[in-house]
Amino acid sequence: MILSRMLAAAACAALAGCSAKTEAAGKGGGDPSLQTKLAPTAPEGKTALKVETLGSGLVNPWCVAFLPDGSILVTERAGRLRVIRDGALVEAPVEGVPEVFVSNQAGLFDILPHPDFATNGIVFLSYAHGTKSSNALRIARARFDGASLTDLKVIYEAKPLKDTNAHYGGKLVFGAGKLYATTGDGFRYRERAQDPKSSFGAVVRIEEDGTMPVDNPGFGAGSLPELWTKGHRNPQGLAWDSNRAILWEHEHGAKGGDELNIIEKGANYGWPLATYGVDYSGSRVSPFTEYEGTEQPFKYWTPSIAPSGLAVYYGAMFPEWEGDLLVGALAGTALHRVALEPSRALSGVSVETEERYLVGERVRDVRVGPDGAIYVTTEDHDGAPVGKVLRLTPQ
Question: What does the domain layout of the chain look like in residue ranges?
Answer without folding.
Answer: 2-40+57-314, 41-56+315-395
